[in-house]
Amino acid sequence: MTKKFYEKTRKERLDFLLEQALITVEEYQLLKENAPLSDEFADHLIENQVSQIHLPLGLAFNFVIDGEQRLVPMATEEPSVIAASSYGAKLIQNSGGFQTKSSERVMIGQIVFRAIKNASQLIAQLAKEKTTLFSVAAKSYPSIVKRGGGVQEVYFKQVENEAGEAFVTIEVLVDVKDAMGANIVNSILEGMASYLNQKFPEEILMKILSNYADHSLVQARCKVKARDLARGSNFDGKVVAQKIVEATNYANLDIYRATTHNKGIMNGIDAVALATGNDVRAIEAGCHAYASRGGKYASLTKWTMDEAGDLIGELTLPLPVATVGGATSILPQVTFAQTISRSKEAISLAKVMVCVGLAQNLAALRALVSEGIQKGHMSLHAKTLAAAVGATEVEVPILVKQMNQAKQMNQALAETLLAELRKSKNS
Ligand code: NDP
Questions:
Q1: Looking at ligand 1, which atom is closest to the CA of residue 184?
Q2: What is the tally of structural domains in the chain?
Q3: Is the domain of 203 the same as that of 351?
């Protein structure tokens, strides 16, 4: 019997794709050779694995977090993210660095009952089961209890749709220690749900972790001296500070700006998440939902000015990050990333991430309200363009210089300049 695609080994999958003319011989070689993770590891992570994608891993500097110097590992394909992060952190370092704090580190799971006739009666009955639910949960995942975690609290709520149909939801708050906790929470919910199924006739619609991790909040605060905002330019630092405040206030008025404002914050956070083997989708979902907590999508950062005209920044985010479990235990560079950033505990890593978000936002806003974002971004983009058109190590700096002098920079220009360069060399 022929194997299904997912049952094949990686080599068999590639052979199949080639036989079916779905890939060329060149693509076959490319996919075959560019796979540093062993097939065993990669097949353990995902389904239908045929090859692996590489991302550059870099380091951001100048992060002084609660008085401690930290190096920040970042994996990203976007030019300027690491440079901006280091630059923002440097401005903040000059005024004493970041101060952080965190709430409890608890994830929330939901068990949803559907088509409820008398919601308050069901909630009253469920409330009587609270103690039993705690012990069922502990039996469902005993190792997290041994680690000092497990279910911390159980809440009940009623939710109604537009047709007046009622749901009753149990919200289960679980201390997942240094894990991200999705599997831990889901296993606990499974155990609780099977107990509830025996005890209650009402139907359970679903049971699943919530990615709205508002019980895993981490906050970073910083100060930036106005004069540092103007250093190396002709701008007035206090005016730049004022405009940073105004730009943030503007984001709160306009979703088109707020989305980009927050995307810039996530540029850095996602890069740290990738470098440390964390679930970027979970972090993204939680942070953007948190940006809407006031009923309107708004800026995640707050920037104000103190009496001296210096800038005060604050960023609070739900960051359900892990230093154990999930991909963190499988991806080889993760241990390096954790060690170099001194992030053995999840909360410590979350603090690094929130500081990166604040630094990234500061650098972006400073550029936006002064010389504009393109100046710094495009000179780094020039490097990517030069590499993309096939410039060699020697040719890249020559092309970058020429492109930076041009009015407009694009791939066509890079191709033309490279062709001219090679022609002049040959003649
Ligand atoms: P794991 O299932 O890997 O569980 C954590 C593991 O870490 C456990 O095996 C635990 O051991 C071990 N561990 C070691 N030290 C500690 C410690 N100090 N604290 C806590 N655990 C420790 O991962 P998670 O439950 O964290 O789930 C994360 C994964 O789930 C991610 O890959 C995520 O992408 C995925 N996921 C995400 C969903 C979502 O976001 N909606 C949904 C489903 C999955 P022991 O068993 O001995 O306690």
A1: 25
A2: 4
A3: no
